[in-house]
Amino acid sequence: MLGQQVKVATAEASPDNGLRRRWRIGEKFIEGWIFLTGLLAIVVLLGIIALLLKEGLPIFLDTPPWEFFFGTRWYPVSEPPTFGIMPFFISTLWVTLVATAISVPVGVACAAYLAEVAPDKVRETVKPIIELLAGIPSVVMGFIGLMLLSPLVQSAFNLNTGLCGLSAGIMLSLMSLPIIVSVSEDALRAVPDEFRQASYALGATRWETIIHVCIPAALSGITAAVMLGVGRAIGETMTVLMVAGGALAVPVSPTEPMMPMTAAIASGIGNAVRGGLQYQALFAIGLILFILTLAVNIIADRVLERQKRKFAR
Amino acid sequence: MNMKLSPDLLSNAPACKKTRLGVTGVNLFYGDFQALRNITLEIPECAITAIIGPSGCGKSSFLRLFNRMNDLITGARVEGRIELDGINIYDKSIDVVELRKRVGMVFQKPNPFPLSVFENVAYGPKRHGRHNRGELEEIVEKSLRQAALWDEVKGKLEQSALALSGGQQQRLCIARVLAVEPEVILMDEPCSALDPVATLKIEDLMRSLTESYTIIIVTHNMQQAARVSDMAAFLMMEADRAGVLVEYGPTSDIFTNPKDKRTEDYITGRFG
Amino acid sequence: MIGSRITSRQLSQQTAFGLLIISAAVVVLPVIFIILQIVISGGSAISWEFLTLAPSQAGKAGGIFPAIIGTFYLMLGTIIIALPVGVLAGIYLTEYAGNNWLTRIINLAIVNLAGVPSIVYGLFGLGVFVLALKLGMSLLSASLTLACQALAMTITTSREAIIAVPREYREGSLAVGATRWQTIRHMVLPQALPGIITGAVLAMSRAAGETAPILVVGAAFLLPRLPQSPFDQFMALPYHLYTVAAHVPGIPQSTMWGVALVLLVVVLSFNVLATVIRLRARRRRYSS
After folding, report:
1. Where do the structural domains in chain C lie, given as residue ranges?
2. Buried-most residue among A193, A201, B267, C176 (CB within 10 A)?
3. Cα angle value C25/C31/C35 (rounded, 5°)
4. pLDDT digits (tens, 9 = 90+) for C77-102
């Protein structure tokens, strides 16, 4: 009954006052913060770009871009210093190549197995193990490469040292597998079942269906998976720092010790003086890395969007 | 006409009650699509007004105009006037939150919060600054009694509301609305997800609430409209799928003596 | 004729499936092998002293206590910064952002933040926090750097968790006159909490294992004391593993494996914790 009285009271007091807009200052304040934090992702990304440009570009005042990109000699402390990043770039290429050559076929095959063939029980055991792999820190993978893999590679290929691009590439392939497997598997699962049934109805076996129907239908998703895996391999630091060998020459084969771009930054930055030429050169390498991975990610994102739209009805 | 009317239906006809909500020349757009066209009607206080019509004719959209729930949909745009006690609720100076306090809503699917029974009812009052436990207990009990649910849940106020039956959940949602002491209650097909027994309970509850509340109910169930409502508005889609008001008047008139051929077709079609 | 054709096709199917199984094994077996190897080789190094003493003789003797504590501080610092920001940004994207160019740019930025190499985050932290903001090579600089890196993840997981809250709850709350923020604060966030926490724990797990950024921002190799303030230097497990394994000669192998084991246990236990929270929340949702 109390309610009734209150209601009458408000109705009689001044009906239009009750509905007048209130300024909830506290809420406006919070909502302002929410908006600002919403922008933070852009701010951080732009901040990264701005910083890399600001600290990295000045190197080109000293070393012309041509010499910087195509120079084969990196002697930051000699007099005069030379900054040619060709050795690092080629090293990154080698380790990424080795990593991709292993992780793509294995990863896609594993995804096809999990999505199309494996019984639920196997799937439920394998997936957590792959997640576990994704959770192992890169420094631990580097450690494993250092302690276990490189002696194996050394004796298998009869090398002077097992710390080389090949070892690093093999460890990297393991590290890009989780993303390749999970994105490819999602892509395969997104293929509508009608496609498979249509194929069976034409008398195709399961394997023929996978290879001629499912994988082609999921191709853009699998492409995105491969791109993401490549992005991961290019950007990975600790593993290549510990396992690739760290030599400064331009490597002509993956079995040579080498220093990919990420490792060059990690090993050089500690000795670089702020604002010095080496510091600038390392930030310029960071800029190149950033652009490379950005391109790879944007393409992967676009391809994934397209895949999503393809089967969305 | 072959429809049966209970004698008491005629007694449902509203006495001369004053207008609570006035709708004048309202158009509703979702982007380019016009959902409602040129709707004008007056809704009396302390009565039940039913909005009926075929599905897709914009009944729910119409109902959601009264507490500005359509505001949540991007691209929704309203033209015309909707007045609550003479105040245009689409005026710039209107506080939507205050409006929703005074115009409560019960949804099609019971949507109790995943909280205890008590917290469900106390949710609204708490948001409006009432935190005194004793006061809240009073409000919760009063609202649950009003919603005819008290006897069924008084021993399990601390249990999850999701454990209640569908009919109980819907009455809990009504209690939740009552707890903020609205003047108008909007009900969007409140019984469509319920069994007949629960439906009847809700209908009884609605009748008992008309003493002090103005109720607008959307329903596709003709018998229900005939049973509970005092006034009825019949909406229909035109060729461009925009909803228009075909006929509006006392429920007894709409059901026994429709003026428009389309109303008659619809009602008879449904009944036999 | 027909019969033999079918068998040859089935034979090729069996061969192909065999290859698929082998590739799955190629993925799975190294993981098991790596983890077993670390557990076995590292287990012998683990002792009470190893876990509770500071390192001595350039890491050759003593324990790794400061590195363990440093890593926990780092995880905590990272999440204290990244979680509120991630949740607020997730709220913005789900509850406020319209379907417009700004939202598309934010989403693009998030996708790309997630792909930026960790070493580049290191450079960013060095340039911004260590040098420009003059925070020095401190726990705070490292936490801020890792928080920037964790941002994409906390935003994404918060956003997913918030989107998963049914629309009916929001409508019910608004319909009783709760404001937008009240609805978020009292209805949406409590419901999204398990998902948000899952994401936070995963982000912590990742921060614990991250090495390259703190290598650039300046973790200390040997610091036989605990950091006294956020502006203090610190040791961390992953950086310690890197230095004992790759930089300091004469470290006993068992020590290296021991550090690797402790790091792995910290990282993976947070991973498992995240999974447990996720599964429990899901079970609760289905049972009610």
Report:
1. 65-287
2. C176
3. 145
4. 999 999 999 999 999 999 999 888 99
